[in-house]
Amino acid sequence: MTVELVRVDDAFHFEATGTSGVALHIDGATDIGGHNLGARPMEMLLMGLASCSAIDVIMILNKQRQVIDDFRLSVEGLREKGATPAPFQKIHITYKLKGNLDPDRVKRAVDLSMDKYCSATAQLRPTAEITYAIELA
Fold it and tell me: 88 and 126 share a domain?
């Protein structure tokens, strides 16, 4: 896996392109001179965690012939205050699903993602306590 990062302006706006060829914009906060033209690097870590687990859960539920009408995740990360670097200490994921879903199968799919399949979870777990909840509608 390879990523290329190119500076877009004279501040902190970057364009990153990975092996997929899809460009993502990254920028710093305005209080450090950024322009809010992209996601923050630490936000991208949480986005990676969310999407990694979401892919796992959807694949597992599809194999079980569960019908997903809507799928959303909310991720909240708490970083170490006053530290440099300031890693995540706690991360909470809320899985929000709608459809013709067996609650036990959904829980099992989330458990498998978090405990076995999600590489992003494996990266973050050594430094952060990761918890989650499931909401079915």
Answer: yes
Asked whether 23 and 15 are in contact (CB, 8 A), the reply is yes
DSSP 8-class letter at 110: H
Does 126 share its domain with 70? Answer: yes
- Single-letter amino acid, residue 104: D
Domain count, the chain: 2
Please tell me the distance from the alpha carbon of residue 58 to that of residue 91, in angstroms, as a whole number.
21
Q: 21 is in which domain, residue-wise?
A: 3-32
Contacts of 111 (CB under 8 A, 6+ apart): none
Residues 78 and 128 in one domain: yes
The whole-model pTM stands at 0.92
Task: Please state, in angstroms and rounded to a whole number, the distance separating the CA atoms of residues 36 and 2.
Answer: 25
Q: Tell whether 63 and 122 lie within a shared domain.
A: yes
Nearest to 91 by CA among 58, 49, 57: 49
- Reported confidence tier of residue 46, pLDDT bands at 50, 70, 90: very high
Note the pLDDT tens digit of each residue in 51-77. 999 999 999 999 999 999 999 999 999
